[in-house]
Design brief:
Chain lengths: 354, 354
């Protein structure tokens, strides 16, 4: 069993911002849902069954070298604040926040690959990486799925494909998504058209915190809506193609902005930087919007000396759960806003902005 | 005759912020109006008369050592931009912007003492100094008035006192004013009450740019309204007493703010600093408001390492006329906003803020 304290370092690898197109696409994520044949689905599962799955998974991964480094966490062993931390790292889902009996999380491959046990489905394998790199994510997920499949018997229907608790996941059980930053399209008011287009071709967009979350800071998650009736390859190609298009639209929008409104854009960018650098209380919404402007500034070369990695770290560490985790206790809203601004100032101080 | 190019260095001495109470009272100003007996008032004056007055004044001041250093400027010799510069230095009045034939300005005593010739009245002697220091200003004005009076015959009526073009100046011909910064009273919403009180006791308040100007950046000019029927001493005492009271109210308001709303105030202050330090376009109104918050921050010890002198310099050099003077040409509004922000950034870079 791996060391539990590792979790605080996990799920951060994408923050380095080294992936392809990471000036626009922050991260790529692929996850698949699998259930084990012969066991009840999660909604009706017994404790003995859960434990059995957990053990089998651990043994299988262990013998295949997955658990040499990383973390294996039983959700029951960690507290609310730590669970919130993992949620914000996209390592567990909202479902696992409340329902954690016989649930587990395995993080491996420098945080690029993880496995939720006992979420809505028995298994959720996920890969999360920096930049626009869906194919690499899929490779990692596929490898783990194959390795586990050698020891476990996945619930599969010859006509429908892999069976899942929620019908939208049935089929390949795959969900692929990219987290994309679109300030140019928002500022040029083209975003509505682009998002409508996305919705019409079987993709869906959400805010940065997934289903039901508001769009903040011009960050959008774009993902496939269903996985039934298509191969993994088809789904991934479709999302990649559309993402390429959106990246192109965004690039054009940025060029137009800097051509037609350079002063206004530079002013907006530098003001955002000034406020982030000096404010003493920042709400999540404001923080996201300011960071969006500053990220645009770095991408456009308006701000020099500030790294994407610092911005990604701010995005991560200024979150609710991360602030509470650092404080070691629950925080009220006013306390969070103050600590958020302090955290941001500290992270910005790492870079020498010219 | 003194060197004309000197004017650009004149009228700046109060910017050092070394005067008493200069955390609240930026500057004190005393000016008196005098007309020379036997000459027409300005409204009906002939060229020969004007020239004659100008020469007599120059000779008198010269023999008394006033013109060893400083500037003697004939308004007709300088252009619109330079006149605007002098207006913003409070060295000439709006009247002299347009009507400058046979008008002159003498600046001496490190800019603390000046004399307008051919404004609304034949002579306007003025002293402008840092902080709350009306008595010193009055002394300087009184000395020059006496020295000039030894050679010139002031128009005087035994019942009304010194005669002036505008009846509100008749009597002592004195106007005393202080430029005071009252962000505490504005933020605690006490300012209305205080200003109403001031108006009821024969004083008047204006914006930083004098009669008819808007209040900006929480700066107020408080001055006596009339000078008839009172001695200089009484007028000065009255204004001093009220100023002392307002300073006390302001001090209390600041204490209440920092006690009851420290985080909000600190946040407001630091945000203002961040924007001033990084913005790329700043309007006059915004600039004044941001500087007001930063000045409060320096006064309260929230911002360390920034000097009042730097803030006073920003107040001075970010003005319309100063920006045009530096550019050497008229500027449109967008250009001014961009140059204003650049000037502010440059001045702030002189200090190392902790």
């Amino acid at each position: 069993m791996l060391n539990l304290t590792n979790i605080v370092d996990e799920g951060l690898s994408w923050l380095d911002g080294t992936g392809p197109h990471s000036d626009i696409v922050l991260s790529s994520r692929v996850r698949i849902a699998r259930n084990i044949a012969g066991y009840h689905f999660q909604s009706g599962i017994g404790s003995y069954e859960s434990l059995d799955i957990m053990k089998k998974v651990e043994t299988t991964l262990s013998t295949r070298g997955y658990l040499k480094e990383g973390a294996f966490i039983e959700l029951a062993d960690i507290d609310d604040i730590e669970r919130k931390l993992l949620l914000e790292r996209h390592l567990i889902s909202r479902e696992l926040l409340g329902q954690f009996k016989n649930s587990g999380l395995i993080v491996t491959d420098g945080g690029k690959l993880s496995l939720m046990i006992g979420e809505e489905d028995h298994l959720r394998i996920q890969s999360l990486m920096s930049g626009f790199i869906l194919d690499e994510c899929w490779k990692k997920v596929e490898n783990m799925e194959r390795d586990l499949g050698e020891a476990l018997d996945y619930a599969y229907h010859p006509r429908y494909g892999f069976l899942t608790a929620c019908p939208t996941n049935t089929g390949t059980g795959i969900r692929a998504s990219i987290l994309i930053h679109l300030p140019g399209l928002v500022l040029t008011k083209e975003i509505g058209k682009v998002l409508r287009g996305i919705s019409q071709i079987g993709l869906t967009f959400r805010g940065i915190y997934g289903e039901g979350s508001d769009v903040m800071g011009n960050y959008f998650q774009i993902s496939n809506q269903t996985s039934l009736g298509k191969t993994e390859g088809e789904l991934m190609d479709h999302l990649s193609k559309i993402t390429n298009q959106v990246v192109e639209y965004e690039t054009n929008a940025r060029e137009i902005l800097i051509r037609d409104a350079r002063i206004q854009i530079e002013d907006k960018i530098w003001r955002a930087f000034g406020i982030l650098k000096y404010a003493r209380a920042i709400t999540p919404e404001e923080g996201m919007n300011l960071m969006s402007a500053v990220r645009l500034g770095v991408n456009l070369g308006v701000i020099e000396g500030l790294t994407i990695s610092t911005l990604n770290n701010i995005l991560m560490f200024s979150q609710y759960g991360h602030l509470e985790w650092e404080a070691g206790r629950p925080l009220n809203k006013a306390e969070r806003d103050v600590r958020r601004s302090a955290r941001i100032r500290k992270l910005l101080a790492n870079d020498e902005v010219l």
